[in-house]
């Protein structure tokens, strides 16, 4: 069972070709585009949801920060759809791979930080020293603040990876336990099954929440720096 | 048997079985041709099931079901070992 547990996270290949590119691009198929003002039901639903999220997320930003709206909306839609698609049986979730999450987190964080250092140098550097610190603590605090700045992209990436991977792993384990217990004692298997149902509902929530948290944090870093 | 319509422009269901190999070889296998084939398939599905006045959840769920089946086929090699058999 040990080997089976982690094979679901290995990169999918078809006759040696990495299909992962197709799997990453697949959610784009589910969001059709149109020139019309009023389209079919699925487009109306998607437009409504995206407008809702957009207004909620970009309200706190200045006009300069709002130029990032397209980027942040694409980000949250990508992460939410890949996470939700990963809840279907046998599918592969790209966000379980640290490489992909680092690829999302590092450029976005670096863009926000570089923007802040370029246009508002004094404000960005002043973030390294909180107001009212005792003079003796200043050198140590600057080091701590620098470390906490550089850990932001790592934390973004690892948070997303760990949450989604842990959820999937837990579902695999509890599912296997339910199956194994079924022949031994049916009532225990029933309890385990109910746990599995609750976990699945949690996973749906986690999929959406993780997308939200990721995007919110990026937008916060942006807000600090614009 | 010569037919009035030239072979290249016939649709698949109109092609006779004896003409099938030459029909397949005449298709456009360039990258643009393959991209065009995918685009036509997508447009056909979209216009039939999604872009309608009263679309239903079936339009989306058929795609997701096909995705699940596709992923199952991809991971069959590992799933083979989880069957309840005496000898794997």
Report on this structure.
The complex is a heterodimer of chains A (226) and B (88). Chain A is mainly alpha-helical. Chain A has one domain (7-225). Chain A is 73% helix and 2% strand. Chain A has helices spanning 2-7, 20-25, 41-58, 63-66, 69-85, 98-119, 121-126, 138-182, 186-225; strands at residues 13-14, 17-18. Chain A has a two-stranded antiparallel ribbon. In chain A, β1 (13-14) and β2 form a beta hairpin. The longest helix of chain A is centred in the last third of the chain and has 45 residues, at 138-182. The termini of chain A are far apart. Chain B has 88 residues and is an all-alpha fold. Chain B has four helices and no strands. The longest helix of chain B has 20 residues, at 31-50. The radius of gyration of chain B is 20 Å and the shape is extended. The model of chain B has no long low-confidence stretch (mean pLDDT 82). The A-B interface holds A 4, 7-8, 12, 14, 19, 26, 29-30, 32, 39-42, 85, 88-92 and B 42, 46, 50-55, 59-60, 63-64, 67-68, 71-72, 74-75, 78-79, 81-82. Chain A: Belongs to the ATPase A chain family. Chain A: Keywords: ATP synthesis, CF(0), Hydrogen ion transport, Ion transport, Membrane, Mitochondrion, Mitochondrion inner membrane, Transmembrane, Transmembrane helix, Transport. Chain A: The chain crosses the membrane at residues 12-31, 67-88, 100-121, 133-151, 171-197, 204-222.
Give the topology.
The complex is a heterodimer of chains A (226) and B (88).
Chain A: H1 2-7, E1 13-14, E2 17-18, H2 20-25, H3 41-58, H4 63-66, H5 69-85, H6 98-119, H7 121-126, H8 138-182, H9 186-225
Antiparallel strand pairs in A: 1-2
Helix pairs in contact in A: 5-9, 6-8, 6-9, 8-9
Chain B: H1 20-26, H2 31-50, H3 57-74, H4 76-79
